[in-house]
Amino acid sequence: MKANANEIKFFKNRSIIKFEGADFLGEIGIDGRVFKALTLARISVGVISQQAVENGLSILVHEDDSEKAVTCLIEEFAPERKSGKVSQIYSINNVSVIGFVADDLNKILSELARNNVFPLLLNQNSSEKRINIVVTSSQDEKTKNIIESEIFKKPKTVHLAIIGHGNVGKTLIEQVLHSSEEIKRRKNIHLKVVAVANSRKIAFNKKGFDNTWSDEVFASEKSSNVEELINFSKENQLENLIVVDNTASVDFVKNYQALAENGFDLVSSNKIFNTLPIEEYRKLRYTLNKNNKRYLYETNVGAGLPLIDTIKLLHLSGENITRIKGVFSGTLSYVFNNFSLRDDKFSTIVNEALEKGFTEPDPREDLSGNDVARKLLILARELDLINEFSDINIQNLVPEALLSVSKQEFLSRLEELDEEYDKIKKNQEPNYVLRYVGDLHGDLQKEKGELDVKLISVPATSALGQLKGSDSIFEIYTESYGENPIVIMGAGAGAKVTARGVFGDILRLSETK
User: Fold this and answer.
1) Is 375 a catalytic residue?
2) Aspartate/homoserine dehydrogenase NAD-binding domain location, by residue (predicted)?
3) CA distance 93 to 106
4) Are the beta carbons of 244 and 267 closer than 8 angstroms?
């Protein structure tokens, strides 16, 4: 696009006078009478949009003149109003006009729509490529910023709201702050963290937080709720909004719908939404599509591994995926990789994983298999299957007697698991190892697939058997590849890995905004 800085004009405090008629067909001089009446009333007029003569006119005036303009037009067209030829004469106040020169109006309109900005009026002089856009005053600064970014190639500002600043959230904020200048230089994108929240309170900074962000959150007196965030974004006319959910909160995912409706794209490492009942899952997808918003969640299954993107690409290209199998949990990968190779007791390995921060504070969250089950269900739904969580066959690794006791008691009785798992380990075939796997199989062309989460024994020389450390592995079987699966393997856990995956989703959204 070609434009000069002096070609953008910005006028606030304007009103639109709407002059409408049911049927002006064949009438001559209607528009002339409108302008004559307003000129005699000493009202400066700017025509922004002239509809077909039979429908009416939209005229721009200063808001101080709007009431007088409506009155004089009502007087001028009293006979036509009485006969019904003129149906309505009214004003729309609190609007602003932005005038500019651009070659590609469609691109600008697309960017505005993506930010929930829909011009009230648009007038284009095709020969001069000059465009006038009228928007509400509550969106004028945001509109101006978007237009300037498009026609002058100024850095696109992307405003981030980070929800949850535990291990992943804190690491993500540090990564964004550390990389922001380099991203601005290389990508022409200015990432600004303008909101940070935990379960109790939320802090805002329109200019963008710096390394003192945690102090500002600590000092904030605003309670943490989505209404505060939505109001902040509207009051400050923030464009290119992304909310990032780094929590494991069942409650926060209930806000996704409202956020999408209010101009936010979504990035989430929180697996809960994608495993809610299928009706809620589909309702959000409909809302996202309706509002031209996107929802990325690559880290839901493979942390920093490009798993969901790969499956989406295969599925959308028409490739028939026949099975997805693998070790989905970095925690249980670490536990069974070590338990299979070492002489230590099962409880020793679990305690070691807990001390290293690989498990949840209560290891039963990992040992229950629910986390693996959620990941498997997410992949099933990427294939348009309508499975529910209740369809999954889950082998819980925790004895029933220890399911309902306190965390402290469970940890103190962890050795009660040793005898059972020692027996499982010894009863394997020679050169076999234990792996806790998720397996999506069956006829995946039907409405539902078969989902199993269980402990299995595999040859130590197999792809699953050669897994090391806390890595995850995913085998994707397709009709084209036959018995040779696509294998994606790598770090499946850790705050840095997950935060980097979330950061990748943020950049993908930012580049396509």
Assistant:
1) yes
2) 164-298
3) 26
4) yes
d(CA 273, CA 195): 22
The label of the residue with tokens 């994707």 reads: 476
The pLDDT of residue 146 is: 93
> Looking at 144, 192, 293, 375, which residue is catalytic?
375
The b/e string for 16-33 (b: 16+ C-beta within 10 A; e otherwise) is bbbbebeebeeeeebbee
Q: Following CA atoms 339, 340, 341, 346 in sequence, which dihedral angle do they give, to the nearest 10 degrees?
A: 20
Whole-model pTM? 0.86
Residue 325 backbone dihedrals phi, psi, to 5 degrees: -140, 145
pLDDT digits 0-9 by tens, 167-216: 899 999 999 999 999 999 999 999 999 999 999 999 999 999 999 999 99
Which residue type does 228 have?
Answer: E
Predicted confidence band of residue 481 (pLDDT cuts 50, 70, 90): confident
Mean pLDDT over 436-440 rounds to 98
Q: In the structure encoding, which two tokens stand for residue 489, read together?
A: 């393997």
Using DSSP, state whether 492 is helix, strand or coil: coil
Distance CA 113, CA 117 (A): 5
- Record the tokens describing residue 232, joined without a space: 């902040």
Residue 265, Cα to own-chain centre: how many angstroms?
A: 4
Rounded to an integer, what distance in angstroms lies between the CA atom of residue 317 and that of residue 346?
44
Helices (DSSP H) in 41-166: which residue ranges?
Answer: 66-76, 78-83, 105-114, 140-152
Of 41 and 52, the structure prediction assigns the larger pLDDT to 41
Distance CA 157, CA 375 (A): 33
3-state secondary structure of 76: helix
End-to-end CA gap in the chain: 17
DSSP type of residue 410: H
Contact call for residues 216 and 203 (beta carbons, < 8 A) = yes
